[in-house]
Amino acid sequence: MQRVHGNLTGLKHDQLRRVERIGRRRCPPEVIVGPELARYMSELSREIGRQIGVLINRRGQVRDIIVGDAKGLVLPDLAQTRDAPWRLKGLRLVHTHLQDEQLTEDDLTDLALLRLDCVAAITVRKDGLPHLVWAGHLVPGSADGKVWEHIEPQPVHDLPRDFLSTVQSLETEFARARGGREVGDTRDRAILLHATTGPVGLARESLDELADLASTCGLVVVDTVVQRRHKIDPRFVVGIGKLREIIIRAMQLGAEMIVFDRDLIPAQVRAITNFTELKIVDRTQVILDIFAQHAHSREGKIQVELAQLKYMLPRLIEKNTAMSRLTGGIGGRGPVRASSRSTAAARATRFIGSRERYAT
Questions:
Q1: Rounded to two decimals, what is the model's pTM?
Q2: Environment class of residue 118 by beta-carbon count within 10 Å: exposed (0-12), middle (13-18) or buried (19+)?
Q3: Does residue 26 have a pLDDT over 60?
Q4: Do 163 and 214 fall into the same domain?
Q5: Which of 142, 157, 178 is the last residue of a domain?
Q6: 293: CB partners within 8 A, 6+ apart
Q7: Which one, of 63, 51, 130, lies nearest residue 92 by Cα?
Q8: In terms of residue numbers, what domain contains 217?
Q9: Is 303 helix (H, G, I), strand (E, B) or coil?
Q10: pLDDT given for residue 329 in this prediction
């Protein structure tokens, strides 16, 4: 059953029923959007004065329906869909634009951060009919730094019928650009990130030190990034544009993790992980992981694990469903052995419960 999300307040009963009926319409898998679906969405979007979007899987089925306002829409959480960070999502976003405009910065941000197969905007004429379809998709890394490609805008009836083959070719190119791993190499690949308001030279020195720490705890560093800012962003540390570039870069290099060369507060962890499925780790977690691997005495192991749990506690509370990205592996590995996600989560749950009992 298709899910309807977004701004439904104020819609008449008949309009809401027609929005729900969008899910009954199929899209030919080989085209970005079919003429019938595009016309139905355009007419309804013009009538209600709001953007309407759909997430379509590679079988041409509408999985989600989103209603926004006149200027944009907010996508639902896609965390449970194809979570490998080096693969495309297997979903395309098709939505209406009530103004005669091409893809917006928000569209490109959704494309990059959610790793969508494609994002397409149908411009709606005053009479409610679809005009042009603007579309774009991600591309593997290139020498000129290009990360996405615009498809020439054209009427919906003239869209090429090679969408599936194009997506499959893109995933093949992403896999080739990522490179292979040796058999048995299970180490995480990471991008190291440093944001600074000071000299870049000092930032590079700190990042080199973090790279040594990361190698010590078993990470493979595939790239390092420094951003100099007038002020550290209170939510994302770096700017949203830079974060988008890093996430695309991670996909191109097959990285599963971003390591920040600073301590992140829980609110920052929550904000960043809401934008990406990559694991987010800070400098303190890397250091604690090194201590965990080198603790030998019983007392030392207990102290390290307690320090890890204390550090994780506010982050687990903040993230709720994203607990699996904060436990398990670097930052959540106990001193005795590499903990499974379920084991680490169970330890954290017991720790939280004991804190609550002592507090009462």
A1: 0.71
A2: buried
A3: yes
A4: no
A5: 178
A6: 217, 218, 333, 335
A7: 63
A8: 189-353
A9: helix
A10: 56
| Residue 193 burial by Cβ neighbours in a 10 Å radius (0-12, 13-18, 19+) | buried
Q: Are residues 168 and 202 in the same domain?
A: no
**Both structure tokens of 76:** 């639902």
pLDDT at 348: 47
74-119 confidence digits (pLDDT tens): 888 776 565 565 678 899 999 999 988 889 888 888 887 788 999 9
Establish if 359 belongs to a structural domain: no
Residues 168 and 204 in one domain: no
Residue type, 147: V
Contact present, 92 and 110 (Cβ < 8 Å): no
Furthest CA-CA distance within the chain: 76
d(CA 179, CA 140): 12
Range of weakest confidence among 44-53, 181-190, 253-262? 181-190
pLDDT band at 138 (very low <50, low <70, confident <90, very high): confident
Rounded CA gap, 125 and 41, in Å?
12
